[in-house]
């Protein structure tokens, strides 16, 4: 299950962060071909994810693509609890 965690030192005062996270989450779901409500990482899509997230951060927060790192990791569904169970 992918976990999108964006942290920055850019001031977010006056910025609609929920819109940024919504757009990023939508792109992740689209790129890996899963519904946004239940997303699992499948296959080697890191280059596409990196490009999509970098474009969002650059356009919405003015952070140049060369000024941040993305870390990709694949977690087992059993490591996430939801609705009284695990995935």
Could you walk me through the main structural features you see in this protein, from its secondary elements to its overall organization?
One of its GO terms (molecular function) is phenylpyruvate tautomerase activity. One of its GO terms (cellular component) is extracellular space. This is Macrophage migration inhibitory factor family protein. The chain has a two-stranded antiparallel ribbon. A hairpin with a 2-residue loop joins strand 1 (81-82) and strand 2. The mean pLDDT is 83. The chain is globular, with a radius of gyration of 14 Å. The chain has helices at 17-32, 46-61, and strands at 81-82, 85-86. The longest helix is centred in the first third of the chain and has 16 residues, at 17-32. It has a domain at 17-71: Macrophage Migration Inhibitory Factor, CATH 3.30.429.10. With 87 residues, it is mainly α.
Summarize the structure.
This is Macrophage migration inhibitory factor family protein. It holds the Pfam family MIF. The chain has helices at 17-32, 46-61, and strands at residues 81-82, 85-86.
CATH superfamily of the domain at 17-71: Macrophage Migration Inhibitory Factor
Number of beta-strand segments: 2
Which fold name is given in CATH as the topology of the domain at 17-71?
A: Macrophage Migration Inhibitory Factor
What percentage of the residues does DSSP assign to strands (E)?
under 5%
Residues in helices, as a percent range: 25-40%
Helix/strand order, N-terminal first:
HHEE
Biggest sheet, strands in spatial order?
Answer: 1-2
Alpha carbon gyration radius? 14 Å
Q: Unreliable runs, pLDDT <50, ≥5 residues?
A: none
Mean pLDDT: 83
Tell me which CATH architecture of the domain at 17-71 applies here: 2-Layer Sandwich
């Amino acid at each position: 299950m992918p976990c999108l965690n964006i942290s920055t030192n850019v001031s977010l005062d006056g910025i609609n962060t929920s819109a940024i996270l919504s757009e990023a989450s939508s792109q992740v779901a689209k790129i890996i071909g899963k519904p946004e409500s239940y997303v699992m990482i499948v296959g080697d899509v890191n280059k596409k994810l990196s490009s999509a997230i970098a474009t969002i951060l650059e356009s919405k927060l003015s952070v140049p693509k060369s000024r941040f790192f993305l870390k990709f990791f694949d977690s087992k569904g059993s490591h996430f609890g939801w609705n009284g169970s695990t995935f």
